[in-house]
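Researcher: We're teaching a course module on how sequence relates to structure. For the next exercise, students receive a sequence and then see the predicted structure as tokens, so they can try to spot secondary structure elements on their own. Here is the exercise chain.
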Amino acid sequence: MRLNSIKVPHLKASADVRSSSIKLPEKVVIAMSQHGGVPCKPLVSVGDDVKTGQLIGDSDAGFSAPIHSSVTGRVTGMTKVLNVFGVVHEALVIETVPNQILSEEVRPPVINSREDFIAAIKRSGSVGLGGAGFPTHIKFSYDPAETEIDTLIINGAECEPYITSDHRAMLEEGEKIVDGARKIQEYLGIKRAVIAVEANKPDAIRNLTGLTAEYPDIDVMTLRPAYPQGAEKVIIHSVTGRVVRKGDLPSSVGCVVLNCSTAAFISDYLNTGVPLIKRRVTIDGNIVNKPRNLIVPIGTRACDMIKAADVRVAPDRAIFGGPMMGISFYDEEMPITKTTNALLLFSDTKKSHHNACIRCGRCIRACSMGLMPTELDRAFDKKDVELLKKLNVDMCMNCGACSYVCPAKRNLSERNQLAKMFLRDQLQQKK
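Model: And here is the predicted structure for the students to work with:
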């Protein structure tokens, strides 16, 4: 069995450029929702001084992840941030000071058990850095008496065009990725780990193969370049041949999947105690003179990154994330979050006009989940709740493959997301 996939342009202009930092921003805007799950509540107020790494947002909910200050400075405002999905969340505005000081709260965690490890990962604020933002501790919180996990998959596919933040992590922080994988294996009792990398990153494969040579329980697997190879269910199938059924988690087939940058962060946190307060972000696009990866504090505004991007002209389109799954945004004051892996800047972008469906079936052949985007589109037009359920719209992962291959330029992926939101609202109203 081979899951459906498509070919997309590589366009990895920043792959050979070492990551760099930017000048400390004058202020950061730190949203209280940077993960899948329950948003955090602010723990500081306007006028409070905060230090780098200090806990500033938290929630009593299990399905959440705490938020820490990425800078030293003063809280000068509480504002509202409209995220890329159109949801408004609270945010703290922190004006930075020249003397950056690490908080006294920051210290390496003491771990003597599986429970200590999971609790430490939660305190770190770790979430999936590949874009989904799933709280990492939730992935580790399965009951080993009921769920047997035999394979840890470290996801280094990074199959979208332009984005190279994971690629650079595999080159610059390969030791941390391997150490993070080994620590997870040790504390969770997972016998086998696989670092899965697409074949179009031979330098990363060589580096990781060398670093894992002394560890027989860690394999580096080369995957064929395909999109969306990096999707969780797809990479599980590529690595193990197992299929995650509708409504099930990867643990149902004995797997835990973790982005390679997340694995590197876990290693760093266990050794230093510094929580998730910065990340590597790819800067690229057709107006960027020097594509590269910038390591920036969480909460850095897009305008500050655009200043550092060395652009030829002002962009007419800006995207957080990749061209396939990323979201365009209109406000340069919008801050990056833990899940922002790229900022793409374009000018003279083509404006497509969609036409009627010609029933060619390309979208169906492209869908790695085996869905029927054309029928989902019709069901959404009719607002047919039962048909949307029958067609499994909730399995759509918004990879954008259907829209990409459509000769009529229909916004099928966007419509699928609207249909998912509609179905969710209708089901909640029935409750």
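Model: If you want an answer key for the exercise: The first strand starts at residue 20 and ends at 21. The CA atoms of residues 177 and 264 lie 4 Å apart.
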